[in-house]
Amino acid sequence: MPRDNAREHRLLILAGLASVFTALILIAAKAIAWLMTGSVSLLASLVDSVMDSLASLINFFAIRYSLVPADEEHRFGHGKAEALAGLGQAIFIAASSVFLIYQSILKLMEPKPIEENAVGVAVMVFSIAMTFGLLLIQKYVVRQTGSTAIEADSLHYLSDLAVNVGIILVLVVSQFGYLWLDGVVGLVIAVFILFSAWHIASESVQLLLDREIPGDVREVISAIVADHPQALGFHDLRTRQSGRTQFIQLHVDMDQNLTLLKSHDLASRIETRIQDAFPMADVIIHQDPVAVGSKVTLDDRPPA
């Protein structure tokens, strides 16, 4: 089924704008709640939202840049801008976690009662509703486009749901004299954010280093080639991903007596089947002539 690039572009822009506006609204609400309550857990959530807004802005501009068509200087397109955006997000998120660790330790050393708990709880419930709505949009866009930048942004907002529930717990329990819990939860949130930063950074770096596409790609391609009797085998299978586009390259062994037209037709049929299995793929097949008497087995493993 052909890709509707114009629709994908609109979805990506929509997801980017939704993320930015959600972060800005939550910053305003949480800032008011923190000033009224003095809770370090709320401060942690506020700082997290500030980092979200910066990361979302980076994401938005990176997505727009990644959608620029290939040009003379970037023959493979600009898809890796999304991985760079993910790396930028990770740096911002890690920096916010360090600040929160410091604030949480101060709160543990000098615990203070939390004021206006009801306001804090109301803001957290509002935050959960806003975040959940954004996640629904992002998950839909990721399913439709396979965007790594939106997926990284979605992962962070997903962690926010757990964080917000924890803060509500702190605001309620602190009324019974457990003042130390505010600092502990703030510290847990900071560590959780740091872990998210590591995950996003690791995934982004792997994409920039052209890691193989994860999953059963090799098994699927092996089965597709095996379905074509005139294909005597394949080797040198290489895969990578840049933004939403997957690149798949392989050599297919064919009878050296096949005409150029027939070998080209065989390669085209295999290419079409691979693109049906991986709609986001840009497939390149090199045709290798071999003697029929030296028929090889289907083996895509690189030589030792």
From TrEMBL:
GO cellular component annotations of the record: plasma membrane
Q: Does the keyword Transport apply?
A: yes
Reactions catalysed:
Fe(2+)(in) + H(+)(out) = Fe(2+)(out) + H(+)(in); Cd(2+)(in) + H(+)(out) = Cd(2+)(out) + H(+)(in); Zn(2+)(in) + H(+)(out) = Zn(2+)(out) + H(+)(in)
Biological process according to GO: intracellular zinc ion homeostasis
Question: What is its subcellular localisation?
Answer: Cell membrane
Q: Which residues cross the membrane?
A: 12-36, 42-63, 84-106, 118-137, 157-178, 184-201
Q: Which residues form the Cation efflux protein transmembrane domain?
A: 17-209
Q: Which InterPro entries match?
A: Cation_efflux (IPR002524), Cation_efflux_CTD (IPR027470), Cation_efflux_CTD_sf (IPR036837), Cation_efflux_TM (IPR058533), Cation_efflux_TMD_sf (IPR027469), CDF_Transporter (IPR050291)
Topological relation to the membrane, as annotated: Multi-pass membrane protein
**What positions does the domain Cation efflux protein cytoplasmic occupy?**
214-289
Stored Gene3D superfamilies: Cation efflux protein transmembrane domain, Cation efflux protein, cytoplasmic domain
Looking up PANTHER family in the UniProt record yields: CATION-EFFLUX PUMP FIEF (PTHR43840:SF41), MITOCHONDRIAL METAL TRANSPORTER 1-RELATED (PTHR43840)
Indicate the family of this protein: Belongs to the cation diffusion facilitator (CDF) transporter (TC 2.A.4) family. FieF subfamily.
The name of this protein is Cation-efflux pump FieF
Write down the species. Answer: Alcanivorax borkumensis (strain ATCC 700651 / DSM 11573 / NCIMB 13689 / SK2)
